[in-house]
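So, can you check what follows?
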Amino acid sequence: MPIPRPRSMLGAGLAASPLAGLHAAHTTWDGADLSRAILVGARLQGASLVGADLREALLESADLTGADLTRSTLRGAQAPAIILRGARMHAVELEGANLCGAILVGADLSQAHARHVNLPGADLSKADLFKADLSGANLIGSDLLGANLAGANLGGARVWGAAYDEHTVFPNDFDPVVRQMRRL
């Protein structure tokens, strides 16, 4: 049964809704309650989810390329292999979320609240993580080529094997060699 394509779901209450395979590119979901929603394989490219509640949502392999998730919450979300290329995620809440293998190339994660986020193998190349709180995060084997981590909190973050290059910007007190990262 095809799922209808909404144009605006502003403030919608869809908690725990089964929305797997949803095709809703360039739609508005600002302030929507999508907590515990099942969005496996959803295609939400360019969608606006400003301030949306996606706590504990299942977003495996969802495509949110270019989406706006500013000030939204994905606390505890299960989103392995999610695509967030070029997404705007300023001040997003990611605490305890699983984004294993996520594609976050060029994403704006400035001032993200991402304590204990799980990002092993994630592609964060050219991502803006300015002043992000990544304390306790798992970034093992992730790609940080050209990423901006200036002012980020990496206290207790696991970063061994993560790749960086001469364009990667680290916080002043951070030494990637001591933390066993790989320079490419």
About this structure: The beta strands are 163-164, 182-183. Residues 1-6 have pLDDT under 50 and may be disordered. The chain has one domain: 26-184.
